[in-house]
Amino acid sequence: IFEDVDQLHLLINEVKITFFSFPFPIKHPIKVGENMNMPTLLSLAAMKAFALGRMAKWKDYVDLYFIIRNYHSLKEICTEAEEIFGQQFSEKLFRQQLAFYKDMDYSEPVEFLVQPVPDKEIKDFLTNIAIDIF
Q: pLDDT digit string (tens) for 65-79?
């Protein structure tokens, strides 16, 4: 599709794929095909948590909703983000971002692979998770 300074965006079989130049060591133990590896779901969630402060895209909130609801706790994601990004990640800021929806970028439509979830349900869930202590 297009190339940015530190990103390459492609559309393959109607699936948008973005490759980032990332200045942090990210483990990528999952083999995809013969020539490509990717991070674990927990590491991907940590990367989304880190990215929310730089670009608030609704699709990332939707991804985090499903990850937290079905796979990893907020604490696990924050711990992973702290391991990857060190002091550049702030759990407090991440929690604030999970409950803040003003100026949200809705430009990329969300295509659900499961039954669509209403925006309000996602926002309520993430807000409750964000303000929960543990």
A: 999 999 999 999 999
Question: Mapping DSSP to helix (H, G, I), strand (E, B) and coil, where does residue 44 land?
Answer: helix
Q: Are 11 and 2 in contact (CB under 8 A)?
A: no
% of the chain beyond a pLDDT of 70: 96
User: Using CA atoms, how far apart are residues 47 and 57, in angstroms rounded to an integer?
Assistant: 13
Q: Where are the chain's structural domains?
A: 2-131
Among candidates 66, 41, 50, 42, which has minimal Cα distance to 117? 66
User: For residue 121, which of 132, 113, 129, 109 has the smallest C-alpha distance?
Assistant: 129
Q: What pLDDT, on the 0 to 100 scale, is given for residue 41?
A: 96
pTM of the shown model? 0.83
Give buried/exposed letters for 104-131 (b at 16+ CB in 10 A, else e). Answer: eeeeeebeeeeeeeeeeebbebbeebee
